[in-house]
Each structure stands twice: as C-alpha cells, then as structure tokens.
Amino acid sequence: MKVARRARQDATRLWRVCLINGRPDAGRVRHVVDGLTETRRTGAAAVLAHFLRLVRLDAARWAARVDTAAPLELAERTAVHAMLVERYGTRVETVFAVDPALIGGMRVRVGGDVYDGSIQARLAAIDARF
Amino acid sequence: MSTLVQELEARIAMTPRAAARKSVGVIREIGDGVARVEGLYDVMLNEMLDLGHGVTGLALSLEETDVGVIILGDDTRLEEGGEVRATGRLLQVPVGQGLLGRVVNTLGEPLDGQGPVAYNEFYPVEAIAPGIMRRRPISQPVQTGIMAIDAMIPIGRGQRELIIGDRATGKTTLCIDTIINQARLNSAADARRDAGYRRLYCIYVAIGQKQSTIAQLISVLQDSGAMPYTIVVAAPAADSATSQYLAPFAGAAIGEWFMHHGMDALIVYDDLSKHAVAYRQVSLVLKRPSGREAYPGDVFYLHSRLLERAARVSEKYGDGSLTALPIIETQAGDVAAYIPTNVISITDGQIYLDTDLFYQGTRPAISVGLSVSRVGSAAQRKAMKQVASRLKTDLAQFRELAAFAQFGSELDSTTQAKIDRGKRILELFNQPQHDPRSFDVQVAQLWAVQNGYFDSIPVPRVKECQQRLTEYLQSSARDVMGRLATGDALDEAAAANLKRACDAFAHMWT
Known about the structure:
With 130 residues, chain A is an alpha+beta fold.
C-alpha cells in the first residue's frame, strides 16, 4: 500500500537522522517522537509506529540477557559483561536473570545470537541424539 | 549389555559440549504460508530455518528489518512471538538409488507408507547448473516408444523437450508412456544381464495436481511394472505454495545424483504452469513487485535455472545425463502467452499437442508442423534416421495438398499418391495410450510404409494391417527384427531380408 510504504520510508529517514556515528542519540530520538506526536499532519501516526519499531529493533539487537540457574556474584556478572562488550562492542546492555529450569550453566542471548551452555540444553541435545 | 553401555557412553561423548552460537529470531507476522521474522541477522538466502513444532521454513527475503520466511509444512500451530532457529544449512533432499520405487514429498519424506527412504547422501535443492565446459554433445536417444516422436521429433539424453498443449490433450499420457517404455527397456536389459545398456531412470514431479490424479498415475505405473525404475515427487494442490514451488528443484536434485554417478535420468515436470502460479503466490505474499500477469519479474529465471540443470555431462564430471520433459498447459491454444513463450525459448524444442487433432481421433495429437526437436537426428539411431528422414517433409507436403483436395478438384496421380501415402502414415502414427512400441517394430513399420506396402490397404484397415504385420514379423521373422533392434543402418542384405518378410506377409494378407 502506498501509505504504508511512504510511512516506512519516512520513518527510516528519520531514524537515520537520529544516528550519530552509527549509534542512536537519545535526545534526537525524543525530539523526533515529540514532533510526530504533536504534529497534526495526516499519516504521522503510521510514521511514528514504524519509527518506534526501528527504535525497538535497535534496542533488541544490542540487548543481552544472561540466564543462570543460580544468581551470579557481582564479580562474575562484571566478567560476563566484559566478555560480551569485547565481542559485541560497548553498545551491549546486559541484563541478568535466574531460571532454575536450566539446572546449571548459563544461557546468553544477545540480539539474534544465543549461546546455550546450560545443562538443560545439553540434556536436550543428548535426547535428540537418541 | 556392556557393549550397549559402551555404545551409549560413546554417543553421549560425541554430543558437543561447547555452547556453539545459534542464530535465532522471533516471528512477528504469520499468515498465508509466509512468516516475517525479526532477528536472524546472519541468516543466508535459502537457508533452512526451524520454526518449531517440526515445521521447516526457508529464508527467501532478506530485508532491512526482518526476514521473509516461506513455510514448508503445516503453519497452523505457529504463533506470533514464536522462536525461529537458523540451521546453518541450505535446503537439502535425500538422494540415491534407494529412492527408486518411492513416492516422496518436496522434502524427500516418504508418502507411500513403506518406511523411511534409503538414501546415499543429501543434495542441495538449489544448485548451479553445469557450466559449458562440463557438458558433452547429445548423441544418445531416449526411446519414448511413441512412434511419432521417435521418428520425427527425436529426444536425446540430456535434452529439454517441452510438451505443450491445452488441457486434456494427452500431455501427461505422453510422459507416462515414455516412463513405461524406459521401464520395459530397463527390465529387458536386467533380464538379459546387459551391463552395456545404459538404464534410464525416471522421476515424475507432480506439481499442484489433484491427489486422485496422482494416485491414478502411480497405479498405472505400478500395473505396468514401471515403479521400480521411477521416483514420484508429489506436491499436490493441497500442499502449500512453497512446497509446490520447491518440488521441481527437489526433483532436479534427485536427478542430478544419477547424472553425477554415471547414470542417465529423465525428469517430468507436470506441470510448470502450476509451478509458475505457485511461485506467483509466494512472491505476492512476500510483497515483491509484480510484473506482467502479476507474475514476479524473475519468473523466467525460475524456469531457466531449473531447466538448465538438465544436461549431458562429460566423463570427468559424472558421465551421466538428465533429460527434462517439462509440461506447460496453454489456454485455448495460445502458445504466445507469457509463461509458454518463456519456456519455449528455454527448452531445446517442443511437442505441441493440438485439441482439434485430438478430437479428430489423431492420438497422440502431435502437431508435426508446430513441433520441433532442436537436437534432431543427432539423437536418432541410424536405422531410424534412414527410414524417418523424409517423413516430416512428406507430411508437410501432405498437409498442403490435403487442403487442396478438400475443394474436390481432380488431382493428378502423383498428388493423389502423396495424399494417400500421407493418410496412411498418419494412421500408422496413431497409438493407444500406455502401449509403447519397441524400436525394431517402429523401424519395420516405417520401412514398410515408405516402400509402399500400405498403399493398397484402405485407410480404415491400416491399423489392423499394422497389427498383423507386427505380429507376423515378431513371430516369423525374429532374426530380421533382431537385426533392426541393433539400431545399425540397414544395409542391402538387411533391407533385402526385411523386404522378403514383408512380401511374405503381403501375400498372406491378400
């Protein structure tokens, strides 16, 4: 549809404006969102929806989630975060969570990458072999 | 028991320990056999994806913010928010000699209830066709058993010959008869333990057809003993458009295995019109721009890359061949429509089946004027070339003169003789379905008609005479038929022997 395509193109252009050296600038993003919510121009809602989707996708790409069976010590959390920063860059933001279903080990998800070293995953792999 | 324990421990030890990186995504939109997935940043084009619930998908559209995935299988249990994992593999199918006699779907999974499919290895569904330097010229014939084709539009091993016509003109029957004849030749070679004869294995790909039709075809193949030499790849109309789109490529992968291992294979795509429609559906749901008749812009490439995989390769690259018989259904005889013209320009010739000829009783309803084989007599054995070389011209002259004769004018004796001869040749070419004729019988019949043995027979009795002549030659002139079966050109002695046998028959007939 013409309207949706145009809205997507506008949203992409606005998103590129918000990037400084490849990273989104929070101030510019807020400014764009304010402008789109306050304007009376037709189609602004569709542009806003696409723009927010791009913001969400970017955030999801650099969001790291570390699940462990038992809570990690501060030193361990710092070390894990440092390893992720080394591999993915300083944009990565790490969140730690506890999931007893893992039994042991760690599962790390960064954007679309998953590293599953948990015992649950290894048992599933053995199960699949048989 | 201790060996079992050891085996289990070995299997557990083989399970990888390190947490390897897996690429995952999330389904954001699902419907119409297509899913839009966010994530999967490193996915390859045409990579297989695991969508959960045993459903496989293919990454077909790599866009800025998401991946368009076409789904192979039942998508009713997939939900928005579901996880999708990349497998790191391109779509592959099992291939090998163990597939002969089996009915499989697009993914190579069995549909005939005869247990798992025995395979040698996996071949990618999408593959690059053999390059120019890997090919050899076509010189070996495919004996279809249909006299009109073997005499005037001969097909060679490694050729692509399009079969085109309106609905219900006998396109599928032509292909099934070819498959049946290959099975007869293969089983005869097996019976006499002839390792020198190159067996031709057949693959039939059913795209978008009714399941009852496919079941009927399988039944015909089983009854005629052709199934042990045939593989059926079925993507019926009830399957997703994705399955129908990929089925011919899966069939081509199966055929390529034979080609790479020194064997010959023949593949029938029935039909590519429905294939183009399935691809159109997939492309439109993926929101790709549409062109003429709403087909996507790369519909030509869809068929060209499929048909280019049929080739005859040199000894170094497999020493085999893959012959393709694509089928296209026209609407109201329009061969100038979009998809038919595309495929005509890709293939090495076409066999045009005419509806009018069909209803006039000419079956197979092959229009000799519009049909061509661009490989031609290079793929004919010498004996057939000898007897059939003038046929096309004779029939072309007959068609022109027959139009003349309709005006009721008096004709000179030469013209009348040409018309009479033409009528008899056409009558000889009529053949019932599922009854292919062997090479020696074809050569004998054509030699007889070219030498005037049918000139005195009234046209309504030509069929009967043809039948009796065949029976006589097969029972009382076996050495003559044996000499014809070698395929070598007829020298004076062979021609004299054949003449003697035909004279004896003519004497009996009168």
